[in-house]
Amino acid sequence: MRATSVFAMLATVLLSGVAVAAGSPDADTVSRLGQSKHTLVEGIRQAAKTQGAPISAKFEFEDGKFWLSVYAAKAGMAADAEHNTLIELKGEPNTAAWNPDVEVFEDKEHLTRSAMQLTLLQQSRLDLAAVVEKAASTEKGTPYSAVPAVKSGKPVVTVKFATSDGGSHSVDVVL
């Protein structure tokens, strides 16, 4: 009977963890990652080839569609936000070729967010792809988001990972 109680308790804990993951804001995104024909790092590298320095990237489920989005600083990392063009490359990742549309940010919300992300990444010797690869070298799962932030007074990139059980976790890479 005691073994049955331990098993029931363990099953409850495990199932509650899956339920929490299923109810998370990222659950729709995580459930669609298997549809992507591209990795987060591939999207970052593609953006870097023609659109400047990537400053954040994520898969997202928005407006009923699955997207790969990369924010970039067109003039690169050497120019500050005031002397840069801040953009988003956004396209569906479930096609053989990722052909994102490019939007130049003009609204306060996107300009503020991307200017902060640029400034934080300028504190690092690593580019965004290298930050994701560094995180992936020690974490299990598929990276699906890499967004700069300030945590405990330090610049970090929060890298989120989808796990094989449909859950997710994140790690902060200090810049």
Topology:
Elements: H1 2-22, H2 27-32, H3 40-51, E1 53-62, E2 65-73, E3 86-91, E4 101-104, H4 108-121, H5 128-136, E5 142-151, E6 154-162, E7 168-174
Antiparallel strand pairs: 1-2, 1-5, 2-3, 3-4, 5-6, 6-7
Model description:
The chain is α+β, with helices and mostly antiparallel strands and 175 residues long. It has one domain (25-174). Helices cover 35% and strands 31% of the residues. It contains five helices and seven strands; from the N terminus they run αααββββααβββ. The protein has helices at 2-22, 27-32, 40-51, 108-121, 128-136, and strands spanning 53-62, 65-73, 86-91, 101-104, 142-151, 154-162, 168-174. A seven-stranded antiparallel sheet has the order 4-3-2-1-5-6-7, with helices on both faces. Helix 3 (40-51) runs antiparallel to helix 5 (128-136). The radius of gyration is 18 Å and the shape is globular.
Proportion in β-strands:
25-35%
How far apart are the first and last residues' alpha carbons, in Å?
A: 52 Å
Query: Within the largest sheet, what's the order of strands?
Result: 4-3-2-1-5-6-7
Rg (CA only): 18 Å
Question: Which of globular, elongated, flat, extended, rod-shaped describes the shape?
Answer: globular
Helix content: 25-40%
Oligomer: single chain
Element order: H for helix, E for strand: HHHEEEEHHEEE
Domains (count): 1
**Largest sheet composition:** 7 strands, antiparallel
The number of helices is: 5
